[in-house]
Amino acid sequence: NPADLTACKIEAIKNVVHKKGADLFINARTDVYLKKLTPPEAMLRETISRGQLYKSSGADGFFAPAVIAAADMRAIADDVDLPLNILFWSGVPSFAEMKAAGVRRLSSAQGGSSLRDGEHAVVRRQSGYSRSDLIGWKGPPAAGAGEDQVDVGGLLRARGSTASTSRAAIGLAG
Questions:
Q1: Going along 44-155, which residue ranges are E strands?
Q2: Distances (CA, A) of 4 to 59, 64, 78, 99, 129
Q3: Mapping DSSP to helix (H, G, I), strand (E, B) and coil, where does residue 145 land?
Q4: Nearest CA to 64 among 105, 10, 7?
Q5: Global pTM?
Q6: pLDDT tens across 6-39, in order?
Q7: Cα 46-174-137 angle, rounded to 5 deg
Q8: Are 86 and 92 in contact (CB under 8 A)?
Q9: What are phi and psi of 82, to 5 degrees?
Q10: CA torsion 108→15→59→45, rounded to 10°?
């Protein structure tokens, strides 16, 4: 069972790191929604089950890409009780709705801290910026950012957000 194998890996990694006197944040990921690993009616329950398993194995956060319903986000956040990380893409609710649903981090599908294509639409809807505003954003550049990339942290700070960014993620914790 892949979930059990992942749980064993999390526990083993945490044990080795702990024995060395260090600490490591493990953001455990499940692709139940992203890869449609179960029928739609079973996705939420399976995602929660995996999250609870990973938490009991030592995970510090839980990443569930492709969850877009706020009610599912709330159920996962409540039942798993780890900081919830969601993939930032078209169809997700507003930042405020996700934060209220327990989401604490958004990850970009592109990696790094850049936004492209469909992600621009999400940021436009959330921030009020146009695509040309995003492309021309003059905030502090992301490491290796090209002209079609955006410093998400600077963008959010300019709109008065208290959100923080970390490479490919937007933290929603207040």
A1: 61-63, 84-88, 103-108
A2: 13, 17, 22, 29, 43
A3: coil
A4: 105
A5: 0.68
A6: 999 999 999 998 999 988 889 999 999 999 999 9
A7: 100
A8: yes
A9: -130, 155
A10: 120
